[in-house]
Each structure stands twice: as structure tokens, then as C-alpha cells.
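Protein modeling request. Please complete all fields; requests missing the sequence field cannot be processed.
Requester role: graduate student
Desired output: 3D structure, C-alpha cell encoding
Chains: 1
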Amino acid sequence: MDFTQHARRLPRCTQRLIDASCEDIDALRSMGISFVALAITTVAARSTSRLGVPSTTENELIVYIQTAALKDLAVNEVYNGYSSVELAAYHGLTNVLTALLTMGCPLKKSSLQANAIFASVRNGKHDSLEIILNTNKEGSARRVIRQEADVIKSTGKFLSTFMETMTKCDVKSALLLLDHDCLEMSDKESKYIFNGNKKFPNMLNNFLTEIYPKLSNVMLWQPELHWSFPTTDRDTICKLYNEPVLPKPLWLEVFTYFPRGWFACRGYDSFGRSGGDIVLRNIIGD
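Delivered output (286 residues):
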């Protein structure tokens, strides 16, 4: 399957799949190559149009993918470390992305660190992101976002859709993600922002100000900003809010004095966390 010379080879490759014998298909499977991911990469790389891949070429690619699926070939395998779904999202091949998601391809392959949501945001492909979120089945997009913190914990490598939106001040992506309850700051992200690059707190301030231009001091807690506080803060605030010690309206007033990471830096044994656990969860300073 040679896609490297011209996208017009796609119909020819599709026909070769249609004509392939069972032995030929078995041979293709044994090669361990993701022809679909390779085709997406090649088609995107060969496109010379400012508008991206022509719709006719994208449609030919979809026919090729559908034919591969009918031949029981994997359509969401990996090429150069990226799955077919990630590649389609990254390059803004929205029709291909829709076709792959309709086939049941996941937003994140378990063998990979990144995911299609991150790929869309990284390359500023808002149409891809919107398609992913609008075809979000049973909260799959939210689960994928939350798994990013686990990637950081298990591999030591930092992968964060939140950080991508913040550092690029990508308000459109942020609003799309917020509309689908798919954007929030984890403890790890908070630590990275406040204990890392000195520019990050200013970036966060600018980012949140762009999203909420009418709010005063976006660095302190307000109900609209709850999602942008780290996990420990959100958990503790929710527990405090449901404590009968103070009336709920008064709790809301009290919270507005707290910056991000305030709760994570203090031990609240009364809320079911041992001192050791709090130490492990501290995210900003001591």
C-alpha cells in the first residue's frame, strides 16, 4: 500500500483491498503496520491547500477506511506513536474523525499516553474538538481528560489538555470543554503551574480573565471558577460546604478569600485525611 506519491493512489489502494484474497489480508495483518494511520498521515502531509485536505480526498480516505474495516483490518492502530483517531483530530480531518468515532474507535488507546482531545487542542482544531465532544458517549471525553493526571503519575511525563488551553490562551477550546464538563485542574497541574515556570501564574490569570472578563480577581475562589481549582481544593471546598458549622451562604463568602492550593497546603484530619496523606498531596510550597 503505497500512499507516498499522490493522494490519488487512495482509490487504487482501496480497490486492491477489495480484490485481496484471504491470504493477502492475512499477510497484511501479519505485517503489524497501521495502513489507516499511515494513510491519514500521508494525505495530511501531501495537502498543499490552505484549506486543508480537499473533501474529495477525505471522502476517498473514508472509503479506504471502511473497506479496511470490512476486511477485518485494524483501523485505529498506531503510526509514529499516534493512533488513527488522534491523527484525524490533529489534522482536522473532521469527516474521517466522525467515521472512526462512529466505528467505535476510542479517544485514547490504552497503549498510548496522548489522546484525541489533547491532539485537537494542541493543533487548534476546534472543529475536531467539537465533534469529539458532541459524540461524547457516556462521559468518555471526561474520563479521558481525568486520565491525563494518571499519565503524569505513572510515567512522569506531563500531558495536560488544561495546560495546552492555558499556555495558548485558547479560549474557544476552553469554552467547548467547559460546556461539556471536560475541563478542570488537577493537583499535578496546579503544582506545575505554581511551582514551575514563573510565567505560568500570569498565563493562568490572563487565560481566566479572557474567559471571565467580568469577574474580579480570577486567582481567588468564586463559584464560576471552581473547576479551575486543583482537585484537593475542590474536594475540600465541597466537604466544607456541606458541613453544618456555617450556613452555606456564609461558606461561599469565606471561600472567596482562598487562592489555589490553599487547602492542599494544610492538614484537615477532620475530613478523613491523615497527616501523611496531606503531605503527599501538598501541591504548592509547604
